[in-house]
Structure formats: structure tokens, C-alpha cells
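cache lookup: miss for this entity combination. No prior model stored, computing from scratch. Input as submitted by user K.M.:
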Amino acid sequence: MAEKYSVPLLQAHQLIRETWGEIKPRTSIICGSGWGEIVDGLSPVSCISYEHFGLMGKTTVSGHKGNLWLAKPQGVEILIFQGRRHYYEGAGWAPVIFPALLTHELGVDNFLLTNAAGGIREDLHPGDLMVFTDHLNFMGSNPLIGQVPHPAIPRFPDQSEVYDSALRKKIHQAGNAGGQTIREGTYLALSGPAFETPAEIQAFARLGADAVGMSTVPEAMVANALGLKVGAISCISNLAAGRCSNALSHEDVKETSRLALPQMTQLLASLVPTL
Ligand code: HPA
């Protein structure tokens, strides 16, 4: 295993076993901006701070708490990463991709990513939930540059289906069961931290992007390369730049995510037992 990751991964694995014993979760979830409270609706058991995981460090963005939770909705064990690290925080890729590596290390098969995103396609509105069909990586970098972080990752990973189609179907079924219509679309990822200009959004619309954000794609790429089943869901928190008259702010993004919390929690609660 790549030197940088092997010891922190083994230590994190050991700490998790010492804390929670021989748990066998089948799903791990990353909560994006404003989604930290999802944990409360999914029968949380106990948590470990990211600060105990060498490479994760401390989250620096408000709305991202920095705890790994064990939760048991309907008695089903899951892991929840409460808050994510972003490339724009400037600490490199290691803290961003660590949850994907740890999920694989623990033998967990399903990796669910949530985030907040700006809506580009005209029929996407604030509060809508959108499952990823695919992505466009415009982050200006790639988390797999350099030494591969894990021996299970090939030098040239296939990306024909990063987002597992069977998992996507289950997300729709879970939505339908709760009377929710889940939208679908292509997510375009940028490094951030500045929001986009209206001209950029117009260009991205022509390229086929339906929603835009500053996360998720690196974790999804690494998890896909590790052979995990990946699903990703955006809450459309705002209309993208130039599609709305008001200025964009992180506070508004968090507020809309907070309002959509019951829908996201309900979706995950009905989805998890089916995985
Ligand atoms: N742009 C980039 N990232 C975002 C946005 C946006 O409009 N909304 C939430 N995250």
C-alpha cells in the first residue's frame, strides 16, 4: 500500500475495532454542507472525531462537523462521515479521499455521498434532490495523480459507470416509497472556493452539466477505482450564478440544505435497509 496511507489506515481500522468491536456495516455515507444533522434521524450510537484519524485532520468549513458515527437505523449498522474535507481547504487530496479508503479498508461495499449543489438545468429548483448519473471533473486536478494510494487501485481506472446503476435504481425506489420524486443529472465539480461566474455557468450548461459544486467527485473517483458501489445525491441549494438575481452565499446554501433535511433523512432511512 502507498506509504502515506498504510499506517493511518491501519491505525484508523484498529481504533474503530477497539471502539465498536466487530461491526459489519454494509454502507457508509458522507454528509455534505449542512447535512450534519442527518445523523440525528438515523439512530446514532456513538462517534469518533476525525482528529483521531491522522490524515483526516480538523474540518475547517462551517457546516462540516468532523466525526465518524456508527448508527443503526432500523437495526442496520451504517457508518456516517459527518462533514467532509475539501480540496480548496488546501491540505491536498489525502484528507479528501481518506473516507473512501477507510470504507474499503473496513470491507464496506456501498458508499453514499451527499452534497449541496447549484442548479444549472432549468427544471432543477432549490430543495430538489438529484441523484448523479455521471460527472464532469473540472477541479483542475485528479486525486489519483502520483503514487496510487492503494494496491487495489489500478494506474488507469475505468470510469464507464462511476455511479452504480443498481444503487441509483434503489435510490429512486426509496424516494418513491416516501412519496418523493428524485431527479437525475450530471454534476460538474470545480475546486472552488469561489462560486462560479454567470459566463462559466452558461458554458457548463452547454457542456451538459445539470448541477455544479465543489466536492464529491474525488471521493467518488477513488471509491469507484477501489471497486465500491458508489451513489451520490445533491440537494439543489440554489440556482447557479446568473440563473438567480441574488448573490450566492455559503449561509444560504446551508439554510436550504437544512430545510431539505427531513426529505434527505427520510430517503436515506428507507434506502439503507435495502442495501
Ligand atoms: N456552486 C458551487 N458549489 C455550490 C453551489 C454553487 O452554486 N451551491 C452549493 N455548492
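stored under new cache key. The beta strands are 27-31, 44-49, 67-71, 78-82, 110-119, 129-138, 183-190, 211-213, 229-239.
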